[in-house]
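Problem: given the chain below (119 residues), write out its structure.
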Amino acid sequence: MTAGRPTTYLPEYCDKIVECMGRGLSKTAFAGEIGVCRETIMNWSKENPEFLGAVKRAEAARVLFLEQRLIDGETGPRVTSHIFALKNADPEEWRDKTEREHSGAVSVNFTTVYESKPD
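Solution.
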């Protein structure tokens, strides 16, 4: 048994994080809502499999909220903020950058250029 401060984790936080992030808020916002820091949320995820599962569902609920806002046809700066949030919330599906992998040998040639000094 490890010594230390007793946990403030409560099983009802599983439902609360899904509800909170389902409104489009982040894990950090949920932490603020219940009066802890984000690191506490991350520690609870490591220590409590049921909470980790809830966090995964909450992340999906957040993406659903943000995507639904885009589909509903909002315009202007809100669209930009939702896209920005989605790129961070779900980078696998919402990134601009595409990555390509190449296999096989790669040849690189370097040319050294010397500047001549006047005589």
